[in-house]
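Suppose you are handed a protein chain with no further information: no name, no annotation, nothing but its sequence. What can you learn? This example shows the usual starting point.
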Amino acid sequence: MRIGIDGRVLRDDYPGIGRYVYNLLLALQPQLEGDTLVVLYDPAVKSRYDLKALASLAGVELVPAPVPPQALSQLWKLGKLIAGLRLDVFHGPYFPAACRPVGVPMVLSLYDLIPMVYPASMPSVPARLAYGAAVRLAVRNAQRIIVCSQAVRGDLERLLKVPSEQVTVIPGAAAPVFRPSSDAAVRQTRELYRVPQRYILHVGVNKPHKNLETLLEAYHRYYTRTPAEGRASLVLVGEHDPRYVTPRRWAAQLGLARSVLALGNVPDEDLRDLYTGASCVAVPSLYEGFGLPVLEAMACGAPVVCSSSSALPEVAGDAAIQLDPRDTVDWTRTITRLLEDQALRESLRAQGLNRAARFSWEATARATLEVYRAVAQR
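A reasonable first move is to predict its three-dimensional structure. Written in structure tokens, the prediction is:
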């Protein structure tokens, strides 16, 4: 079986999708049993992903596809390119690639429907309309849709009337790099970014559905009630979208400029160290299609407090403290308790490591291969 996968998202400006596709490819390759992975890539793009190493693996074939994943021209260029590859099935891990039939059975990955469920995350009305139209076309063209959670499956049924039998839930996993770091590595990374010994960590962009407002207000309440000598800092990791208020500006408005550190994007190895050294990791999102930071944090042995909304309970299980994302008082109380109660932190660390071990890319790849084979046979 020749399996086509759109790898044009293996680029740094698609951090979540790129990471998903790269780890999926690495986990698929050992399970091919004579099948071939035909991976489309954009040769003009430089990224953190090692495509040369990928191309050297048995059963992997890289094909140049010099068109960006959001370019309108892919609507006519992609089908023509795929037609000559003799594929049995094509996997579009990003919905614009699936907006037109490509001449072979198609599998589509959808990670969330955030602009439909939470429109404030895409403030431009024309952009939302274009998003909705493109997603509907992709869903119509796909023989099978892969989602990471039951929450997204429910959104597809509710908002787009997609039959449940067309949707397969296959959870993702943390990348292998995310595991507990040594004390020396944590100390070195903290010194590199000038992070104090005690800190609360948040990982994610500053879009409205990430609900940084609740976290910053909860931290402000904690800050004003805690003596300076015992106070933990708040560390924010992730890209800052200029369309929204930046965390630095928000923190300055609350008088927290010296205690809130906004680091932007950091390499995965440094993020692993920051997870490991955190007193707690806070994920207050209003909506997540999966919630990878929860899983990454638990895989690194960090205590996690997260929202009880959307897919987060599916990932966290009973290994994290779950709160109403709008309840600032409860977030303040819980963060304060975590910072003061070492036994609770250690209990959550142990539970989180056990929970994270239940998710693996090997299992994700195995289930995905089953979908490919079922679709190709049909």
